[in-house]
Amino acid sequence: MAAQPPAHPVAAPVSAPVAVSIGPRPEPVHTIAVYAFDGMAPFELGVVVEVFALARPELTGLLATPWYGLKVCADRPGTPLTAVGGFSITAHHGLDELAAADTVIVVAVPNTFSGEVSPGLVAALRTAHERGARIVSICSGAFALAAAGLLDGREATTHWRYAELLQQRYPLVKVNPDVLYVDHGSVLTSAGSAAGIDLCLHLVRSDHGAKVANTVARRFVVPPHRAGGQAQFIEAAVRPVKEEDDGIGRSMQWALDHLSTPLTITQLARAARMSDRSYLRHFTARNGTSPMRWVITQRIAASLPLLETPDGTVEEIATAVGFESAATFRHHFGRTMRTSPTAYRRAFGRGVA
Questions:
Q1: Which residue would you say has higher pLDDT here, 306 or 338?
Q2: Counting beta carbons within 10 angstroms of the beta carbon of residue 228, is it exposed (0 to 12), middle (13 to 18) or buried (19 or more)?
Q3: Contacts for 245 with CB less than 8 Å, ≥ 6 apart
Q4: Domains of the chain (ranges, CATH numbers)
Q5: What's the gap between Cα 219 and its chain centre?
Q6: Tens digit of pLDDT for each residue in 159-179?
Q7: How many alpha carbons fall within 13 Å on the CB side of residue 277?
Q8: What does the alpha-carbon distance between residue 273 and residue 271 come to, in Å, rounded to a whole number?
Q9: Which of 6, 10, 51, 61 makes a 20 to 30 Å CA pair with 197?
């Protein structure tokens, strides 16, 4: 007689959970969203795309965390947007994705003088800021941040052409027209055009360290670091200056060659073959900053790759780059980098415990 099936299904014996190895969880990519609109000039948008979206095989082995993921966002995703120069682009992401990004960059607004800022963009900026995202503007993009109330009570900058208008329209903003960029940590603003390159490289430096930022700058064929406090407008020589007659350039190279030693205005002026007063005037007109402020910036820049290695104490590095004491080094480093040398080393040092 054939065996009859049981009246009720018999549950299979419960087995122990099976452990499955899936490997380490990958770190999330830092998402950057940039705002695009109809009629925009393409330069600043191109800078953001170039810095954050370009494939970078030159960074192989240098990155401790993943590179960025970029999304170009618009009020109406999928709709072609005209650009100055007679071509168009299409942004495939909307403002909801902009509001959800880790860093939001506004490179401009459609009409600076009319005061119109997209209500959707304003709402997205407020949402992103409340989430803790980093909010960045380049050129007239500062007007969007100001419209969202993100610059109230803060120092901020924009293109020098728009500085007075920004101050008139948003009196709670402390507009500084004389700097390349201003960093408040969660909110950053920059002047126009090439200052956007400086700010983008500053973001890379803050996230990944000086060596990575310098590598990006090298491919960009731009100086690796211009301090945010440098003047926007620099008087240019009316005629080309022959290299052998370029006293300012000669003195700057001499200073870089002697960075570890005490430097004075008189020494720099002597290297330029000028009087102290004439040297100060010509240096500031050419570089947009004073000689000693420039020297301090170069010393800070020289300290960054040293801090990224485990060799040498902070005191030894301070001496190596020409600061008279570790306390002076820490003071100027904090003002320039908005962190301490020790914290910078902890964040970006290779092989540093």
A1: 306
A2: buried
A3: none
A4: 31-220 (3.40.50.880), 247-348 (1.10.10.60)
A5: 16
A6: 999 999 999 999 999 999 988
A7: 0
A8: 5
A9: 61
